[in-house]
Amino acid sequence: MSLKTLENVSYFRLNNEINIPVNGQIPLHKDHEALLAFFEENVRPNLKTFPTVAEKIAYLLEHDYIESDFIKKYSIAFITELSEWLYAQNFQFKSFMAAYKFYQQYALKTNDGEFYLENIEDRILMNALYFADGDTELAQSLADELIHQRYQPATPSFLNAGRSRRGELVSCFLIQATDDMNSIGRSVNSALQLSRIGGGVGINLSNLREAGAPIKGIENAASGVVPVMKLYEDSFSYSNQLGQRQGAGVTYLSVFHPDIMAFLSTKKENADEKIRVKTLSLGVTVPDKYYELVRENADMFLFSPYDVERIYGKPFSYIDITAEYDNLLANNDIKKYRIRARDLEQEIAKLQQESGYPYIINIDVANKANPIHGKIVMSNLCSEILQVQTASELNEDQTYKTLGTDISCNLGSTNVVNLMQSPNFEKSIDSMVKALTFVTDHSDIDAVPTIKNGNKKAHTIGLGAMGLHSYFAKHHMVYGSPESIEFTDIYFMLLNFYTLKSSMNFARKTGQTFDDFDKSAYADGTYFEQYIEDKHLSDKVATLFEGIHIPTAEDWRELRQNVMTHGLYHQNRLAVAPNGSISYINDVSASIHPITQRIEERQEKKTGKIYYPARDLATDTIPYYTSAYDMDMRRVIDVYAAATKHVDQGLSMTLFLRSEMPVGLYEWKTDTKQTTRDLNILRNYAHHKGVKSIYYIRTFTDNGDEVGANQCESCVI
C-alpha cells in the first residue's frame, strides 16, 4: 500500500455523516470516528518509520530532504531528547479536517509522494530547531509553544522550515511603481521574481499618470493604469512556482486617481476582455476627504498624478490629499477631473456586491495611527500589512539612482484559546517574537533590491491571532457583546506590550534599532501616552485573565523609558492575517472574525466535501456560534476596532452579508434585499470606528454560492 494506491477508505464517508442529523442531533462522534479511521487507514500504513531519531535524521540528510547547516548546530543527543519530549506530550488532533489538512499540505513526503516522512511532532521539531538557530533553550521553548498550539508560524514558515527544497519563509510582498517606463519595467520584473519565490505580491499604481496624460509633451499619449495591470496579471500567470500554485497579486489605486472608474471596471462581470482582469485582485486607498465629500453629496475632483508630482516634487501617493485637497483644486497647473462622489461610492458598492472587490484601505486612518516616520501608501494581498515605504529613483539603464524601501511580510499567529492557558504568557510571546525575528534576519531577497533594502532597515514582523470566536463560544460570550470587545481590547493590549518589551530587549542586546527609530513616536515617548493609565476590568473579563499579568500604568511608564533609552529592533510587530487552512490544523476559528457555519462545508479539489465542526461545538456553545452571515456586521467592526487600537499594522477584516438578509438585522432596512446602501453604511461605520482596512465583502446568495469568497492562500497563514 502507498498514498497513491489508497482504496476502500472509510474516513470521508464517516466525516460526511456529520451532516446527517440523527434524532435532530448533530452526530459529532462521526468526526471522531473519521479521525481515527484516517490514522488507521491512511497515516500509519504509509508512514516511513526509523528505529531511532539519529537514523531518521541521517536518512533525511542523506536523501537531501532537510538542510544540514541547522542540524549541525545541535548534538544528536539534544535532537533525540527534544523529539522524545514532543512525542511524550501526546498531541491529539481534535478533528478529521485538522489531521487531513496537516498530512495533505504540510507533512514531508518521499520524493515519489508515496509515503509520509513526518508526523506533526516531526514538523514541529524541524521548526523549533530551525528557528532557534542553535539555541537549545529557545528550541525547547518553541517546541513547547508549537506542540501546545499556542503559536502557529505562517504557512510558508511552518511548511518550509528545515527543508532542502523549499520556497521562501516569508508570506507576501509589497512593491510600488513610480511614473516612468523604467520603473514600470522594473516592477514587472520584480513581480515575476517575487511570484516565483512564493507568496502574493501587492503593487501600488497610484503614482502612474492617467490615460490621456501627456508623455514628453505629446498630448493623450499615456495609456493609464489598466494596460499595466494586464502586464502584471500575465506575469503572475507565467511565474507560478513551476505550476504548483496560481501566481497572485493585488494592485492598489488611490480613489482620487483619474483612472479610478476604469480601474474598477476591470472586475465587472460584463467587462470587455481587453480590459478585464480575472485573477488580479483590486484595492483602493481612501483618504478621509473622500468620506467627507460623500457625506456632503458633493462633486469630487480627481488629480493628474503627472501634474501633482511635477509641482510637488514627489510621487502622487506621498501627497496628503485630505490636507492638500483645496490647494490642489486651486492650482491651475494641475489637471483635474470632476465626478460625483456618490457616483463613485455606488460604483464601489456595486462592484463589491458583484465580486467582493475592491479592498478598502483607509489610508489616513492608517497614517494617523502610524508611529513610524514616513508614509503608508498601500497594503498587501490580504490588506493587513501597513508599513511605510520610500520610492526609488531609477537611471535610464534601470539601475538605482536612489534605492527605495519595499516590504516583505513575515507572519505568525497566536492561538487565542490556547495562549490564554499558557503557564507564562510573557515567555510565550517572547519565544514567538524570536522565531519571527529569525525569519526576518535570514530573509535575503537579492532578486528585488528594494525588498532586501526595506527588510534590512526595518526588521519587521507580524504577530497576529486566530481562534477569537472559538474562545468567545467556549466562555459563553456573544461575539460583539461589550464583554467580548473588552476581552479583545485587553488581549491585543497584552500582545502589544509584550512584543514591545521583546523588541526593546532585542535592541538592547544587539545594539541595533530599526532605521529612523529616532524619528518615531516611540523614541520621544508620545506613543505610550495612550497607555499610562490602569485598566479597570469587568468581573467576567478579570476572571478570564486570572493568572496573566495585566500591565499597569507603572509598567507602561517603565517600558516607555526603556524603549526611549534602548530603542526597538522591529519597525513593526503586529498584524492580523486571514488565517486560512492553517486555522483548521489549530482546530479553531480563523483569524478574529466569526465562523460562517457551525459545521463548515469545504469542497476539496479531489476528494469532494469535507465537514468541519466548530471548536468545542456542544449544546452549551451552540447559541454562541452565530454565523457571520446572520450577524450585524457592526459587531464585527466593533471587535476589529478594539484590536486595531493596539495593532501597529492592520487587520484583515472581511464583512459577511446575505443577498437576502434576516428581517430586523439592520434598523435602516425596510426589506430583506441587500443593497449598495448597506455596504455604504457599513464602510462608513468602519471608517468612523477607526478600522484601517476592509478585505473582502463576502455575500452568501440564495443559491448557496459565496461571492467574494477568499480564494487566495498565498499569504493566508
TrEMBL record:
One of its GO terms (biological process) is deoxyribonucleotide biosynthetic process. Gene3D superfamilies: 1.10.1650.20, 3.20.70.20. InterPro entries: NrdE_NrdA_C, RNR_1b_NrdE, RNR_lg_C, RNR_lsu_N, RNR_N, RNR_R1-su_N, Rrm1. One of its GO terms (molecular function) is ATP binding. SUPFAM superfamilies: PFL-like glycyl radical enzymes, R1 subunit of ribonucleotide reductase, N-terminal domain. Residues 556-578 form the Ribonucleotide reductase large subunit domain. Residues 327-354 form a coiled coil. Provides the precursors necessary for DNA synthesis. Catalyzes the biosynthesis of deoxyribonucleotides from the corresponding ribonucleotides. Keywords: Allosteric enzyme, ATP-binding, Coiled coil, Deoxyribonucleotide synthesis, Disulfide bond, Nucleotide-binding, Oxidoreductase. It catalyses: a 2'-deoxyribonucleoside 5'-diphosphate + [thioredoxin]-disulfide + H2O = a ribonucleoside 5'-diphosphate + [thioredoxin]-dithiol. GO terms for cellular component: ribonucleoside-diphosphate reductase complex. CDD domains: RNR_I. NCBIfam families: NrdE_NrdA, RNR_1b_NrdE. Belongs to the ribonucleoside diphosphate reductase large chain family. This is Ribonucleoside-diphosphate reductase. The keyword Lyase does not apply. It comes from the Bacteria. It holds the Pfam family RNR_N. It comes from Pseudolactococcus laudensis. Its EC number is 1.17.4.1. The gene is nrdE. PROSITE patterns: RIBORED_LARGE (PS00089).
